[in-house]
TrEMBL record:
UniProt keyword annotations, A-Z: Membrane, Transmembrane, Transmembrane helix
Transmembrane segments: 66-87, 99-122, 128-151, 163-184, 204-224, 231-254
Organism listed in the record: Melaminivora alkalimesophila
InterPro entries in the cross-refs: Na+/solute_symporter_sf, Put_Na-Bile_cotransptr
Pfam family, one: SBF_like
Name this polypeptide is given: Sodium/bile acid cotransporter 7
Gene Ontology annotations for the cellular component aspect, listed alphabetically: plasma membrane
Length: 326
């Protein structure tokens, strides 16, 4: 029997297992130092694969829909940060200061690619526009996220460092491998497509290694002593409020501006997502190792929540197709 879409997916279960392993058996000493060095190469490989998988044809097919892309980018990099800052007096008391720092970091991240496109397809949205918009968000995030971190989180961890230095590290560790992978796509694109199922595990395994390394450092620094159980419950509420408000706003503004049903679906699913795959490596690059564990925890909660809620929403959109056509 197929697993319910409301249950955690295998990757989320693997993330939970990784966090548990880091909590019980954190890497320390020479092992921790070795993993820190290994994650640099792993993150570069991750973004190299993202670049190689990016279809130039699909991006060009959807690039002309500039009003839709502008709305998605605005939701991703403006609406989210504004909500995170505006709601801080109301939501911050539900969690610890470290967790709300992670919430604000979540708010400045780019949109996810895979799930946004998948949900757009299920719901019957504009696939070309979804591919273009989600891919553009990932590329823009390499430049915009460090700037927003410096503006929104001036006191958080290594975000105190110069914003240009943060952009430089992102460019070197993320953008350069991404561009290299995309330029090599004519030669390796076929291999990537043929072995997509196997490479998915390389993709996810890279994230798991970075999560384990970050959480190991955080646990060694006393992470769980600083995060009481009520704060973790409060984090779920905070993430639910953010997701609900963004889903509601993107739906309302898409209809208000007269977008078609297909465009509305693309706006809703691309404008409400935050990328775990991009966010974890970015946190590793932008923040100290001990701070990164607590900072990525809200992103992990939001990741699962957006999958569950958007799975239900996509099915609702899909069921409306006959009525809309008839």
């Amino acid at each position: 029997m197929a697993r319910s879409r409301l249950l955690p997916d295998n990757f989320t279960l693997a993330l939970l297992a990784t966090v548990s392993l880091a909590s019980l058996l954190p890497a320390t000493g020479a092992l921790a130092a070795g993993l820190e060095r290994a994650t640099v190469g792993v993150v570069a490989l991750l973004f190299f694969m993202h670049g190689a998988k990016l279809s130039r044809e699909a991006v060009l097919a959807g690039i002309g829909h500039w009003r839709l892309h502008l709305l998605v980018v605005g939701s991703t990099f403006a609406l989210f940060p504004v909500l995170g800052l505006a709601l801080r007096p109301l939501l911050a008391p539900l969690v610890t200061p470290e967790l709300y720092t992670g919430v604000l970091f979540l708010c400045v991240l780019p949109a996810t690619v895979q799930s946004a496109i998948a949900f757009t397809a299920v719901a019957g949205g504009d696939m070309a526009a979804a591919v273009c918009s989600a891919s553009a968000s990932t590329l823009l995030g390499i430049f915009i996220t460090p700037v927003l971190v410096g503006a929104v989180l001036p006191q958080a961890g290594s975000a105190e460092q110069d914003v240009l230095a943060g952009i430089g590290r992102i460019m070197l560790q993320l953008m350069l491998p991404f561009v290299a992978g995309h330029l090599l796509r004519p030669w390796i694109g076929g291999f990537m497509a043929r072995h997509a199922a196997a490479l998915k595990y390389v993709d996810q395994g890279s994230v798991l290694l970075v999560v384990y390394t970050a959480f190991s450092a955080a646990v060694a620094g006393g992470l769980w002593k600083l995060l009481p159980l009520p704060a973790l419950a409060g984090l779920l509420v905070v993430c639910a409020v953010l997701l609900g408000l963004v889903l509601g706003f993107t739906t309302w503004i898409a209809r208000r501006l007269g977008f078609s049903r297909e465009d509305e679906i693309t706006i809703v699913f691309c404008g409400s997502k935050k990328s775990l795959v991009s966010g974890v490596p970015m946190a590793k690059v932008l923040f100290d190792s001990e701070a990164a564990g607590a900072i990525v925890l809200p992103l992990m909660v939001f990741h699962q929540l957006q999958l569950m809620v958007c799975a239900v929403l996509a099915q609702r959109y899909a069921r409306r197709v006959p009525a809309a056509v008839g």
